[in-house]
DNA sequence: GATTTACACTAGCGCTTGCTTGGTTGACCC
DNA sequence: GGGTCAACCAAGCAAGCGCTAGTGTAAATC
């Protein structure tokens, strides 16, 4: 058994698993279905992952890690104004929804299927991502760009953004940049 | 078999099923677990519901129907200003999250486990609810209370509100009314 | 040339699943 | 006091589940 590495092979299998988890849901996806999608037999699957749970954890870890990297990069590239940073975060968030949609949908819907150890590990990753948001929102509050309760504003914004996976159509007329712009315009009170 | 009625007994069983579906998720909740929670044997369950799917549909229908009734009542009770109506809708939404929390969480997370016929039927109910929101948002746009794209504003607001089931603690210091007030303040641009 | 490693295979164990069947119970009704 | 009916039960079926054991093999490493 070859568990817990991050070979390119395992990454590819993880990506395929994510797709099936979205289509069927974690519980309804059997190891036999996963194996068939991957072009191997069900027994061979356990060479790459300790058990079915670990596949779920791998999918979510991959997506969250990418989101974190992209958000950090976006913040480094933009100017220092609170508005530019808000917009950069929103756009980055929506862009990962495009490139890593499957993983994010899984993270959203199947989070509770993780066993406690995996959940603990992954929630640290997620906290790191949310901390970026809170930092940006704090700056916007301090600048008077937005008003209200720090905690509530952060949750409302993350809610609006996360909800986009339910309706956003990447093939439609609106770009992630359009959406980010519209969201920021909605919550900012310009002077 | 006694399927498709709406006896008080069935309503009570539906309520108990909702609780289990939230705790365990639909797929992991077995008919034996449901029966035990209800104080009957697993076979008896199929006297009240045609199959497991129908229990899920009943849970979601119940919650959505209640939300619709409450929202309509709230709109009738408040004055005609766009701001008052926005706030009434938001408060009503958050209040159903308190009283019917289980059903709404199930609707959110297990919607995709519905078979196509049930999904079709229930999406009409949900559309009726969302239509109320769009009406109120249109009025607010027309009054200049909020700005932006009609479609996007509606989705962002619903996202922020629906997301509250992930973090809102009814036992905490904030009332649904506080939240509704804060949300409306966030998105309105007063003159 | 021998050994190890990575990856795949077949076969199947022990258990759980949603649901069916055939029958019993007790309250109510004319 | 026979008939009706919702509500329930015990038992079990066929199918499917996650996972293990043991084996084969080509490439990499010594």
TrEMBL record, chains A, B:
Q: Which GO MF terms are attached to this record?
A: DNA-binding transcription factor activity; transcription cis-regulatory region binding
Question: Where is the DNA-binding region?
Answer: 30-49
Q: What Pfam families does the database record attribute to this sequence?
A: TetR_C_24 (PF17932), TetR_N (PF00440)
Domain HTH tetR-type as annotated: residue spans? 7-67
Q: Which InterPro entries match?
A: Homeodomain-like_sf (IPR009057), HTH-type_TetR-like_transc_reg (IPR050109), HTH_TetR (IPR001647), KstR2_TetR_C (IPR041490), Tet_transcr_reg_TetR-rel_C_sf (IPR036271)
Q: Which UniProt keywords apply?
A: Coiled coil, DNA-binding
Which SUPFAM superfamilies does this chain map to?
A: Homeodomain-like, Tetracyclin repressor-like, C-terminal domain
What's the protein name? TetR family transcriptional regulator
Q: Which organism is it from?
A: Halomonas ventosae
């Amino acid at each position: 058994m070859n568990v817990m590495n991050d070979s390119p092979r395992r990454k590819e299998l993880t990506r395929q698993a994510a797709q099936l988890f979205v289509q069927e849901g974690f519980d309804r996806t059997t190891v036999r279905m996963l194996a068939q999608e991957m072009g191997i037999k069900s027994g061979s699957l356990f060479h790459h992952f300790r058990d079915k749970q670990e596949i779920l954890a791998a999918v979510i870890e991959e997506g969250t890690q990418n989101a974190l990297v992209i958000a950090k990069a976006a913040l480094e590239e933009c100017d220092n104004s609170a508005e530019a940073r808000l917009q950069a975060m929103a756009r980055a968030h929506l862009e990962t929804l495009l490139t890593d949609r499957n993983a994010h949908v899984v993270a959203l819907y199947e989070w509770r299927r993780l066993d406690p150890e995996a959940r603990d590990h992954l929630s640290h990753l997620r906290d790191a991502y949310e901390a970026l948001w809170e930092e940006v929102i704090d700056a916007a509050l301090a600048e008077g760009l937005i008003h209200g309760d720090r905690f509530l504003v952060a949750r409302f914004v993350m809610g609006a953004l996360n909800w986009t996976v339910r309706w956003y159509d990447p093939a439609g007329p609106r770009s992630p940049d359009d959406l980010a712009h519209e969201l920021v315009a909605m919550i900012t009170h310009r002077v």
